[in-house]
Amino acid sequence: MNVRRHHISGVAMAAVAALGLGTLSACSSDSAAAGNTEKFDVVASFYPMAFLAEQIGGDHVQVTSLTEPGQEPHDLEVSAQQRAQIEESDAALYLKGLQPAVDEAVSQSGAKTKIDAATLTKLEDHGSLEDSHEHEGEEAHSEETHSGEEEEHALDPHVWLDPVKYAEIAKGVGAAFEKADPDHAADYKKNTAALVEKLDDLNTRFADGLKNTKAKVFFTNHAAFGYLAERYGLTMEAIAGLDPESEPSPARIKELQEEAKADGVTTVFYETLVSDKTAKTLADDAGLKTDVLDPLEGITDKSKGDDYFAVMEANLTALQTALGAK
């Protein structure tokens, strides 16, 4: 996304062509690195971070997301070009613990301002499924060899799905923008306040909409909704772990089938960026319905809305239907 510059004369364009694109990109990179562009250049790790940067930054920022729409963010590999973008940015905004390749690239970069969203709210251990369901074979061995890393790995990074925690992060990002780009601090402050107010309203709608439901347990493809469940008094049971690509054991599938009967579960939720095969298999075997609960890791043409708020509203409706909201 390039900054639009108007009224460039034909002579100037010819001069640029004569100099060659390499020189042009070097110039623009240098000026970006020096903070002399019209915009405050922010590299965001994936959609929820890019959305915050755009909402808070408004007209003053140019936001580049490292994760393409439709790309599953957990397995992102950072290219050499993206490393250069991070290096040249005015700010790198990321969520440590979600994308190891991004964590490494940002820590190794000389980006002026590094904003780790994980430090702006409290991450919690929702008991990863490796702990609770898969103490067998490889996992048991892994636990022995990586016991020192156990606690860090168990922290759940999916904080943006809780509007209250997302608002806490928004406040921290706003403060970081104000400090890094003081010329526009007043606008960042105003935009942050407006975003936090919208998130507060969303939290109220979720709290009211999920207060009285027949069931309190929902099944989902991967363990992305722990914060949301905790916030609104629900219980999430995930087929897979925090990693959406992990496969559940036959014992886990059997356990979920039994739980569905015991807890009045009607629906197995799957998501837009990951295969729905496992969710549909479980639903078929247990006689359950399927529906989408979107972890908002990216917006695509399959998303039920074109931004964070629209998709969260769709998630609320899906949960109300599945849980039998009164």
What this model shows, in words?
The structure is a single chain. This protein is an alpha/beta fold and 326 residues long. Strand 1, helix 3 and strand 2 form a beta-alpha-beta unit. The chain is globular. The termini are far apart.
Structural class: alpha/beta
Residues in helix, %: 40-55%
Query: Count the helices. How many?
Result: 14
Largest sheet: 4 strands, parallel
Strand content: 5-15%
Mean model confidence by pLDDT = 82
Strand order, sheet with most strands:
2-1-3-4
Provide the gyration radius in Å. Answer: 22 Å
Which of globular, elongated, flat, extended, rod-shaped describes the shape?
Answer: globular
Distance between the termini: 45 Å
Short description:
This protein is an alpha/beta fold. The protein has helices spanning 10-19, 21-33, 47-57, 80-88, 100-108, 129-132, 137-145, 150-154, 163-180, 185-209, 226-231, 250-263, 277-286, 308-323, and strands at residues 40-44, 61-65, 91-94, 113-116, 124-125, 155-156, 217-220, 235-238, 267-270, 289-292. β1 (40-44), α3 (47-57) and β2 (61-65) form a beta-alpha-beta unit.
